[in-house]
């Protein structure tokens, strides 16, 4: 039997691979006296994906260090964050999270009996907690509340009051869960410093805060539930894992924003203390690494090929996912999964279905709408009313798009601007030039007709997904079939609100930075 780790060893286990610790002295002081009480919370919104193995791996470290660990399923937070989880789906999604998080922990060998699982609504609706929310709201400024949630709460043009409450509730959770420390991603830092500032004003202790780095997704940006290509779902089939890893950003020698390397560093190495690069004998055969730094060095020097790295991660990842897939292969959990996250073939709660599934299929997540940047604009050689544009949508090459905007938008106003592009229409020739997308525009209802291209929020990047509020999940069709008229059916309910926001059935068009809008055509249509 191994001897129990001492305070210094516990400290090393608790803090390894973290980006930042707030309250290091307090952490060491507690470890010298007793075991640390810590919690990790997750809002029950989009489907958990493989990046969730990063906090799971740290939870395994906490348990090895003797910590008392609480996992909070923050159901109320999920609703308060701009209703990322609709109220009617909240209970189903919380149950799904409970099942899938437990399955993940079991797959990496974490004993569940050593963990405490709590739902936010178990205590956040109590008289005492509610009173503390009011007490906190009497001392917190609007500026501080908005600033605290800036990296976590969905940012929209007209923020709801619920988003301002979110940081305060997360701060109070530390007191009501009776913990010494809170663990989360570095994107939570502003909420953590908010808690350190305001909890003492209610007479509660300042806690320790432990922060993981944000792990890049497969596209090189943050791994996100709402960006399908950036993440691997925990229930993805093996062939889907292979396909997504094959497309993953993993440039030879480039260790920056490399999601494949990051996954090895933050998940696979901590779990196994080694990583095996699988390769054919003619390329040197398999090589076992016992230190991540050595693997990163070999990759940077191009001793390890991206293809071999991806194949090796694929094998290791499928070993983690196999027990989760097996658990969710039972009828009860299959039913829970489809109810919590309705697929395009299911009607949403509150919507009437029919015997024919086609009307239920027509939902906005089937559209591949992205932010595009106009690289060049030229008049069509054979049509006076058409432009031929080159538009960057985050792919290897810009797309050629033909738009009938000559009489409405001067050429110089299109050049270098951000637009909203529908990318999965079937390409078609327009007067001899093949158009590979449609620039979405607001149109006035009356005469004379006015047209304005839709504007993504400032700061968006080319290729960023545009989605309709409440339909963040779901994979777009690879190509919309003209005979099915999916776009046309959805377009019938597209409109511009009185605030100039693009909407479908009164639900806003969004990117992760906020709402899509137009300049002035209130009450207009979108085409």
Automatic annotation (TrEMBL):
<keyword id="KW-0694">RNA-binding</keyword>
<dbReference type="InterPro" id="IPR002547">
    <property type="entry name" value="tRNA-bd_dom"/>
</dbReference>
<keyword id="KW-0030">Aminoacyl-tRNA synthetase</keyword>
<keyword id="KW-0963">Cytoplasm</keyword>
<dbReference type="Pfam" id="PF00579">
    <property type="entry name" value="tRNA-synt_1b"/>
</dbReference>
<keyword id="KW-0648">Protein biosynthesis</keyword>
<dbReference type="GO" id="GO:0006950">
    <property type="term" value="P:response to stress"/>
</dbReference>
<comment type="similarity">
    <text>Belongs to the class-I aminoacyl-tRNA synthetase family.</text>
</comment>
<keyword id="KW-0547">Nucleotide-binding</keyword>
<dbReference type="GO" id="GO:0004831">
    <property type="term" value="F:tyrosine-tRNA ligase activity"/>
</dbReference>
<keyword id="KW-0067">ATP-binding</keyword>
<dbReference type="GO" id="GO:0006437">
    <property type="term" value="P:tyrosyl-tRNA aminoacylation"/>
</dbReference>
<dbReference type="Pfam" id="PF01588">
    <property type="entry name" value="tRNA_bind"/>
</dbReference>
<dbReference type="GO" id="GO:0000049">
    <property type="term" value="F:tRNA binding"/>
</dbReference>
<keyword id="KW-0436">Ligase</keyword>
<feature type="compositionally biased region" description="Basic and acidic residues">
    <location>
        <begin position="348"/>
        <end position="358"/>
    </location>
</feature>
<dbReference type="GO" id="GO:0005737">
    <property type="term" value="C:cytoplasm"/>
</dbReference>
<dbReference type="InterPro" id="IPR014729">
    <property type="entry name" value="Rossmann-like_a/b/a_fold"/>
</dbReference>
<dbReference type="GO" id="GO:0005634">
    <property type="term" value="C:nucleus"/>
</dbReference>
<feature type="region of interest" description="Disordered">
    <location>
        <begin position="339"/>
        <end position="362"/>
    </location>
</feature>
<keyword id="KW-0820">tRNA-binding</keyword>
<feature type="domain" description="TRNA-binding">
    <location>
        <begin position="363"/>
        <end position="467"/>
    </location>
</feature>
<dbReference type="InterPro" id="IPR051270">
    <property type="entry name" value="Tyrosine-tRNA_ligase_regulator"/>
</dbReference>
<protein>
    <recommendedName>
        <fullName>Tyrosine--tRNA ligase</fullName>
        <ecNumber>6.1.1.1</ecNumber>
    </recommendedName>
</protein>
<dbReference type="GO" id="GO:0005524">
    <property type="term" value="F:ATP binding"/>
</dbReference>
<dbReference type="InterPro" id="IPR002307">
    <property type="entry name" value="Tyr-tRNA-ligase"/>
</dbReference>
<dbReference type="InterPro" id="IPR002305">
    <property type="entry name" value="aa-tRNA-synth_Ic"/>
</dbReference>
<keyword id="KW-0539">Nucleus</keyword>
<dbReference type="InterPro" id="IPR012340">
    <property type="entry name" value="NA-bd_OB-fold"/>
</dbReference>
